[in-house]
Amino acid sequence: MSASRRTFYITTPIYYVNDRPHIGHSYTTTVCDVAARFHRFLGLDVFFLTGTDEHGVKVEKSAAERGVSPQALADQNAAEFQRVLQMLDFTNDDFIRTTQPRHTLQVERFVQRLIASGDIYLGQYEGWYDEGQEEFVPDTRAKDQDYKSAVSGKPLVRMREDNYFFRLSAYQQRLEQLYDQQPEFVRPEARRNEMLGRLRDGLQDVPVTRTSFTWGIPIPGQDRHVLWVWLDALSNYVTALGLGLEPHETDLVPRDRARFWPADYHVIGKEILFFHAIFWPAMLMALDLPLPRCVYAHSFWISEGRKMSKSLGNFIDLPTIQGYIDSFSLDAFRWFLITQGPLGSTDTDFARAKFIEVYNSDLANTLGNSLSRVVNMIGKYFDGRAPEPGSHTIEGFDWPSITRTAVDHTIAAMARLELSEAMDAALGLVRQVDAFIDATRPFTMAKDESQREQLAAVLYQCAETLRIASMLLWCALPNKIEQAWRMLGQSVEPAAGNLRDLCTWGGLKPGTMLTRGDALFPRYAEQKSE
Ligand code: ME8
Q: Is the distance from the beta carbon of residue 33 to the nearest atom of ligand 1 less than 6 Å?
């Protein structure tokens, strides 16, 4: 592989260790996993990062409530997050924890640089503070919110502290220029508009240290002050690549990782957009580092029509997720998340009835059914061997062109992170195979020996189109598609990065042995409770 392959760097937020993994974390990570798998298969040089955010007052408090040290709580829950990554088959290239020395060392260096450049200075702050969000809230916003957190609804608290401040106000103009010149810096559009509103309100300097707790990275030489968790956490995106290391420190992070910066996508939930879309680029500007291409802020899953909350106890939590996986398969769970999920600017309901509907229509009745129909017919009429394509074409079905369009469409939509559009273009091929079978009726042709060549052409075209569709669908349904490849007699190695070649029409060699297998996605009927 050449060193000059195009890189693709995608990140999830790093998750707080005071919470248990739930649907929200699984969702963002699944989005990134699908994009990472697809782009690796396409041949890009991919780095996919996730991890845990382990400092701050929330972790300190949760640990105290449980009577354990913050580090012990962090160790326990980081291990739990890592277990879940395996359970969900994610292909992240690293897992960063903010208590790791490789991270804290680089963060200290960044802070020293920012103090030296005057971007961080000592001052005093008095104001409203949202403890859940670890965020100071300006007076006007605090009043508008009735002195309650906009996220948790809990009362804001009054804080007065000697603090170090980050000179965010100095970056107002450069941020305005960024938004102007790079309109895709924040997506989707509705979220970008929100941030433009924040810019119009004017930016104030941000306190970036605290003296009210100790669980954080101390300011070098100023042990009373610990670093605000957001400055610490955001840095993970570059510390994992070693951008704060000295040239000789190769043992902490492999040196060649620096090639992945700047990130292509920081995928996050909408509640943490300000930090990523305003604070983070300003910090990068202050450190003289290039800016990410896009901060993608998706909306929220809600549960059966209601916001998920601890008090309602209606989180789609791990046992619930495991239940879906057991009943429908991991791939079906991934499919639902990415095709129905809240990548756009509105929240989405996670409802069991909808899950079953999507499962049955997309996976059982379309993908699974089409594949078994075609493999069965080839089994029955051609002893399981892929027939000769011949020269017959059917009016309205120019398959080489139809498949080329779908492949281009999927690749383009994936590059924009429009996952449901991409998967729809891919599954659209399968729907067209069904329409083709209905139009040509190969089972009727099979009764007439004089139509043998035509039958061969029709079934070749069906199988070849399904083969191409399977390549595009692998990123979302890796386990089931690998099963489909065995049925189609294909041995494919996505790590080879040759997706485009594999999608070239004619890749299915006549004579290839196709084998019937178990239904990929058996139709699901909900058991009626008595
Ligand atoms: O905010 N629907 O961590 P966190 C969809 N440590 N996604 C959801 C969701 C929901 N209902 N709930 C949570 C933090 N998420 C910080 C981040 S980054 C430098 C530091 C997802 O554990 C979504 O991606 O609270 C959201 O941004 C993230 O979980 C918050 O995870």
A: no
Q: What is the pTM of this model?
A: 0.94
Q: Please identify, by atom number, the ligand 1 atom nearest to the C-alpha of residue 15.
A: 22
**459 close to ligand 1 (CB < 6 Angstrom):** no
Whether the link from the prior residue into 188 is cis, omega within 30° of 0, is: yes
Other CB atoms within 10 Å distance of the CB of residue 212: 12
φ, ψ for residue 330 (rounded to 5)? Answer: -60, -40
| Residue 279, ligand 1, Cβ within 6 A | no
In whole angstroms, what is the distance from residue 499 CA to residue 515 CA?
23
Q: How far apart are CA 107 and CA 240, in angstroms?
A: 11
The tens digit of pLDDT for each residue in 54-100 reads 999 999 999 999 999 999 999 999 999 999 999 999 999 999 999 99
Among the listed residues 43, 417, 308, the one whose alpha carbon sits nearest the alpha carbon of residue 321: 308
Q: Which atom of ligand 1 approaches the CA of 269 most closely?
A: 27
Whole-number pLDDT of residue 356: 98
**Environment class of 183 (CB within 10 Å of its CB; exposed 0-12, middle 13-18, buried 19+):** exposed
Q: Amino acid identity of 502?
A: L
Q: Using CA of residue 270, residue 274, residue 279, residue 284, what is the dihedral sign?
A: positive
In short, whether 171's Cβ falls inside 6 Å of ligand 1 is no
52 CA: nearest ligand 1 atom: 6
Alpha carbon separation from 196 to 175, 186, 269, 366 (Å, rounded): 10, 10, 18, 43
For 27, 87, 177, 350, the CA distances from 301, given in Å and listed in that order, are 9, 21, 33, 6
**Mean pLDDT, range 22-30, rounded to an integer:** 97
